[in-house]
Write a structure and sequence with these properties.
The structure is a single chain. With 232 residues, this protein is α/β, with parallel strands linked by helices. Helices cover 42% and strands 16% of the residues. The chain has ten helices and nine strands. It has helices spanning 4-7, 33-47, 89-102, 119-126, 154-158, 160-169, 175-181, 193-205, 209-225, 228-231; strands at residues 8-11, 17-22, 54-59, 108-112, 115-117, 129-133, 137-139, 172-174, 186-188. The strands form two sheets. It has a six-stranded mixed beta sheet, sandwiched between helices. It has a three-stranded mixed beta sheet with strand order 5-7-8. The radius of gyration is 17 Å and the shape is globular. The chain starts with a helix and ends with a helix.
Amino acid sequence: QVSAEDVRLIDDPIPGVRRLTMNRPEKRNSLIHPLRGAILKALQDADTDPDIKVSIIRGAGPSFSAGYDLSGANAGHKLPFFTAEGEGQWPRHVTEGWMSIWDLAKPVIAQIHGFAMAGGTELASACDLIYMADDATIGYPVVRVMSTPDWQFHTPILGLRASMEMMLTGNTYTAQEAVQVGFANRAYPASELEAEVLAMAETVARVPSDLQQVNKRSVHRSFEVLGGRTAI
């Protein structure tokens, strides 16, 4: 039996910053139900903690996340939060979960090393800022063999041409390409990634949370006026 305590680590590396580390390195941090629930719970806890101004999410071991766990390991685990049953329950469920990150008051930063695949790119794209190691990669290979993405961030975030290429090929992209098409903010040498992310988090944390909340929501509201949330 897997518990939330087994699949995530939490620390506060500098004042005002909460860091969540997915801790299934032997499974490349694949997104089993308890891990998804633990991620959302930890971020919600940080959102209500007056001492925390920004959160970071990263992965232990060789990668950020391999995506949803397809090994059957979810047997015996309920969905981490309620979503009405019926046709399309799974994509509606994960969309509700990732959208809940967008709707938090405080910013969330994704720190990607190794690779982020499929559902791992969904988790990262739900965060407010994304920073990658320069040797990291992203991809959504599931479109080659199984289905469209569950959280369909591609077109609203990446635009027509980049999203069409990703959807029709399932190719893997370098960190530099991810920055170029707008998936990530910046790429840093792998040895510098942690320090650079902490420096950015420290900068973000200097802004009072009540102001940062409306800063974040003003960007999302503009995205929604353009149809982003509806499209997803």
